[in-house]
Specification:
The protein is an alpha/beta fold and 504 residues long. The chain has two domains: 160 residues, 3-Layer(aba) Sandwich (Leucine Aminopeptidase, subunit E, domain 1), CATH 3.40.220; 320 residues, Aminopeptidase, CATH 3.40.630.10. The protein is 37% helix and 20% strand. The chain has 16 helices and 20 strands. Strands 7, 8, 9, 10, 11, 14, 15, 16 and 18 form a nine-stranded mixed beta sheet that branches. The protein binds ligand BES, manganese (II) ion and zinc ion (ZN). The site of ligand BES has 15 residues, from helix 12.
């Protein structure tokens, strides 16, 4: 959903509903609410006095505005206490208000920017309003046998801006629309069932992105992988009828020859576990095992649309992990693209196998930094819960910067250690490495394994097994695919390219 910006003020719009966000426990109204209160003869202060609307976080109340001309309804959205206000609460409030209005089958709404909310962060406040509204209305509908038109989101939000604010608000909203589009693109890819999101279909989506300016796509096929010796990726693919693809997307928004950032995303379009098969319960969720790959495609889409002055190479090894006759067997040994050998003790630890080859391949680009994104381990979900990604890496500066991007976007990460002794746990008796070290510290040993394939390059691994999918609605993240960590990646790339511009 695109959010639009118009010049004007809320008391002279003509729309079905106005959204106003409030802080809890305040006697005097501020910003656009104060103006509307005055124009409507105290409509809002009456409601607040009545106690029917306390403005608790995510609370929504729709009131009918009587003789008030600009809109029949006013949706009051709660932000909680001003002292506890943050961007996340703004995102949620706008998501909840929009979801509520959609429930009333409303097609158009308007809101305005309140300069008193987090006054030192006005651009971020407007971005949060637009993100909350845009992301909160997301629905995955292509497979519902009803009139598709009825499922579509017709609810439009217009942000009305005073002439003095119009141009910066327009700029922020336009950029935010690009980012929410990219997040919804990732959500669509992840939500698609595995029979409709094969490695080939994922590659076709990447190829479509190459229509954008400065984006090129190449897909390495099985024959090429064989010639290159990518036996770790090929090993995982061997149990499936679907041919594997190594998707390579290059975005060249930066200077010619400037070293790129490499984004490497796990693209398991279905993970049955292979011969080390997973239990039936919730196996369906393993259609989401390409969420890291989807995030890479979406981040490059956003970078291209935002025209970020940076070079990026995206690598997505894509395959299924099945248990066909050719499948890997526990105990098999593979010679990876790097030349190092891997003993496969558990065929369900397949993500690290395909990433090993993709990470080694990334080194060909002499990247400035490598970020890999993967639904790698259930252990990470046990450690950090379902809403937080694990972060491990070799570069303190990248870790700090990614942590900052995470806090700015609300896509949370927490660092886990990669101390020396963990590396001993993935040594094999008869090969260079083994692909599992058992359950203990599973998120860490998974990352320790990946670290063997990144050479000297600064590298950070994000384990998104928890936050890539949610079984409950969470404000602007409706249940299903979350699109995490697309916003984090785009924020990191924006900051990175801004720093680069500064230096030159
Ligand atoms: N794709 C899974 C990890 C996963 C689990 C993602 C739950 C999302 C939700 C991964 O391939 C896997 O199976 N990992 C194993 C590793 C183990 C065998 C060392 C795991 O976590 O059990
Ligand atoms: Mn697995
Ligand atoms: Zn997996």
């Amino acid at each position: 959903m695109k959010i639009t910006v118009a010049r004007g003020s809320l008391d002279d719009v003509k729309t079905q509903a106005i959204i106003l966000a409030f802080c809890e426990g305040e006697k005097t109204l501020s910003g656009p609410a104060a103006e509307i209160d005055k124009k409507s003869g105290g409509l809002l202060s009456d409601v607040i006095k009545s106690g029917d609307f306390e403005a608790k976080p995510s609370q929504v109340l729709v009131i009918y505005a009587g003789g008030f001309k600009p809109a029949k309804r006013i949706a009051l959205a709660g932000l909680g206490k001003r002292s506890e206000l943050n961007l996340e609460k703004i995102r949620r409030a706008f998501a909840k208000a929009m979801q509520h209005l959609r429930g009333l089958k409303i097609k158009e709404a308007a809101t305005a920017f309140d300069a008193d909310l987090l006054p030192d962060k006005k651009e971020k406040v407007v971005a949060a309003m637009a993100e909350g509204a845009g992301l909160g209305l997301y629905q995955y509908t292509p497979y519902k046998t009803v009139k598709q038109d009825d499922l579509k989101n017709f609810l439009q939000l217009e942000i009305v801006a005073r002439p003095a604010d119009y141009s910066w608000i327009q700029d922020v909203v336009q950029k935010t629309n690009i980012i929410t589009d990219a997040v919804c693109f990732a959500r669509d890819l992840v939500s698609a069932p595995a029979n409709e999101m094969t490695p080939g279909i994922l590659a076709a989506h990447a190829q479509k992105l190459a229509k954008k300016k400065n984006v090129a796509c190449r897909v390495l096929e099985k024959g090429k992988m064989k010639a290159l010796g990518m036996n770790a990726l090929l090993g995982v693919a061997a149990g499936s009828h679907q041919p594997p693809k190594l998707i390579i997307l290059e975005y060249t928004g930066g200077k010619k020859g400037e070293a790129p950032i490499a984004l490497v995303g796990k693209g398991l379009t279905f993970d049955s576990g292979g011969i080390s098969i997973k239990p039936a319960e919730k196996m369906d969720e393993m259609k989401t095992d390409m969420a890291g790959g989807a995030a890479v495609l979406a981040a490059i889409k956003a970078a291209a649309d935002l025209k970020l002055p940076v070079n990026i190479v995206g690598l997505v090894p894509a395959t299924e992990n099945m248990s066909g006759g050719g499948a890997l067997k526990p105990g098999d040994i593979l010679k990876s693209f790097s030349g190092r050998t891997i003993e496969v003790l558990n065929t369900d630890a397949e993500g690290r196998l395909i990433l090993a080859d993709a990470l080694s391949y990334a080194l060909k680009y002499k990247p400035e930094a490598i970020i890999d994104i993967a639904t790698l381990t259930g252990a990470c979900v046990v450690a950090l819960g379902e809403e937080v990604a694990g972060m491990l890496g070799t570069d303190d500066r990248m870790i700090k910067e990614i942590g900052e991007a995470a806090r700015a976007t609300g896509e949370l990460v927490w660092e886990l250690p990669l101390w020396e002794h963990y590396h001993d746990l993935i040594k094999s008796d008869i090969a260079d490495y083994k692909n599992t070290a058992g359950r203990m510290g599973g998120a860490i040993t998974g990352a320790a394994f990946l670290s063997k394939f990144v050479g000297e390059s600064p590298w950070v691994h994000l384990d998104i097994a928890g936050p890539s999918w949610t079984t409950k609605d969470r404000g602007y993240i409706p249940r299903g695919a979350t699109g995490v960590p697309v916003r984090l990646l785009v924020e990191y790339l924006r900051q990175y390219s801004a720093r680069k511009q500064h230096v030159h």
